[in-house]
Amino acid sequence: MLAPEDVLRAIAAARGDAICVPTMTTAPAWRTLAPDDPSVTCVGFMGGASSLGLGLALARPDRRVIVFDGDGSLLMQLGSLATIAGAQPRNLTHLVFKNGVYHTSGAQDIPGGLTVDFVLMAKGAGYKNAYAIREATEFKRRLPALLTEEGPVLVELHTGLAEKTPMTDRGGLPFHRQAEALRVKLLRPRA
Amino acid sequence: MPESIPASLIIDTLKDTFREARAWLAAEVAEPPRHAHLGWILSVPDTHQRTVLAALDKEQAIRVLTCATEDEATTIAAGLWMGGEPSVLMIQHAGLYASVNTLRGVAIDGRVPAFYMIGLLSREKDTDPRESRHSMVRYCEPLLDTFGVPHARLEGPDDVPLIPEYFRLARERRGPAAVLVGLETI
Question: Taking the model in full, what pTM does it have?
Answer without folding.
Answer: 0.97
